[in-house]
Design brief:
By secondary structure, the protein is α+β, with helices and mostly antiparallel strands. It has two domains: 197 residues, no CATH class; 149 residues, Reverse transcriptase/Diguanylate cyclase domain (Alpha-Beta Plaits). It contains eleven helices and seven strands. The longest helix has 37 residues. It is elongated and about 90 Å long. About 3% of the residues have low confidence.
Length: 357
């Protein structure tokens, strides 16, 4: 049973993480899954409540629940058609907030409607995250206090006792707090794990796997919108000799120095990766070949101008660059290979220079 459930979840993630903008966005798939599950549960819950109210001849209440059921089912249909979890989750949150306010004011079936409010904290926080979801939960908490303690008793149909109101608010806050801290710690953990999985431990730059994801994403955008982007490959000159003469620790210092130069000399939207060993790969979105050549030359000069002191020696580090504009008619591997060959031509022509594809 557990394996089957895991298999079904994996299928759902694969299905909904294949959106065109980012084929590996599992957070998107998770949001889709949660929105679907909460919408399905809400549909079943309100349909059951509507049928129960209808059988008890409470027709007004049954109509309200049937209308909510209709919108919950409609939300699932819209989610399936448009795959916009942002709109669907927002619509579901509005629906549940309305339902909770209605239940608090009018009581629902035998004054049990107050219990429905306990759905809000996990739904709001899991769908909208700890920051936005938590803020909405705080607003709903104060709204519930206002309805139960300050609204004209003649306007609130259920006759809740004061102890009942106090216990409800305390339990609601407890559920909200547990939901918030669960989501908050999950977000922090996921962020740390993603950082470890996507960045090189020595330089702090993106690793090869993560950069390939960005390149694929840029390639899809380029095919769809015609945006042009470029690649730069950089390889440290004489790196093996530096390691042999001065030691691997010095080699690590050189890689960190070059990484810092790249970080400080490029735009935020540009992706920098330690491609392997002493080789770096940079993706420049919205940049044509001419612009990429200018960037590469600027980086080359900065590396050459940066001096490293080793004992009494002042060492000059240089690097060779290959630059090319991404050709969407070719594969990612073919584009990287072309830029790599340009970089090797730079090595053969004396090093410390920039060559274009």
């Amino acid at each position: 049973m557990k394996k089957k459930l895991q298999k079904d979840v994996d299928k759902f993630i694969i299905r909904y993480s294949s959106k065109e903008e980012d084929p590996n966005d599992l957070n998107y798939a998770r949001s889709m899954l949660l929105t679907n599950l909460f919408s399905a549960f809400s549909s079943i819950l309100f349909l059951s409540l509507g049928l129960s109210a209808f059988l008890r001849n409470e027709y007004k209440i049954s109509v309200v629940f049937f209308v909510i059921t209709f919108f919950a089912v409609l939300n699932m249909v819209l989610l399936k058609v448009y795959k916009s979890h942002g709109f669907s989750s927002g619509f579901l949150i509005m629906l549940l907030n309305f339902s909770a306010i209605y239940a608090l004011v009018f009581g629902g079936i035998d004054n049990t409607g107050i219990l429905m409010a306990f759905m809000l904290p996990p739904v709001l926080i899991f769908l909208r995250g700890s920051k936005i979801g938590g803020s909405v939960v705080v607003i709903m908490t104060f709204l519930a206090i206002a309805i139960l303690f300050f609204l004209d008793p003649g306007l609130v149909l259920p006759d809740y006792s004061v102890p009942m109101k106090i216990v409800f608010i305390l339990c609601f806050v407890a559920v909200a707090a547990f939901s918030f801290f669960n989501e908050f710690t999950r977000e922090i953990t996921v962020k740390k794990l993603e950082n470890v999985a996507s960045h090189d431990s020595l330089t702090g730059l993106l690793n090869r796997r993560e950069l390939e994801r960005y390149i694929n994403s840029e390639m899809l955008r380029s095919k769809r919108y015609g945006n042009r982007f470029s690649l730069i490959v950089c390889d440290v000159d004489n790196f093996k000799k530096l390691n042999d003469v001065y030691g691997h620790q010095f080699g690590d210092t050189v890689l960190k120095m070059i990484s810092n130069i790249f970080k400080n000399s490029t735009r935020v939207q540009e992706y920098i990766c330690r491609w392997g060993g002493e080789e770096f790969l940079i993706v420049l979105p919205e940049t044509k070949l001419e612009g990429a050549l200018i960037v590469a030359e600027r980086l080359r000069k900065k590396i050459e101008e940066e001096k490293i002191i080793f004992g009494k020696e002042e060492l000059v580090i240089t690097a060779s660059f290959g630059v090319g504009e991404f050709d969407v008619s070719k594969t990612v591997e073919q584009n990287i290979e072309a830029v790599d060959k340009a970089m090797y031509r730079a090595k053969k022509t004396g090093k410390n220079c920039v060559m274009r594809v």
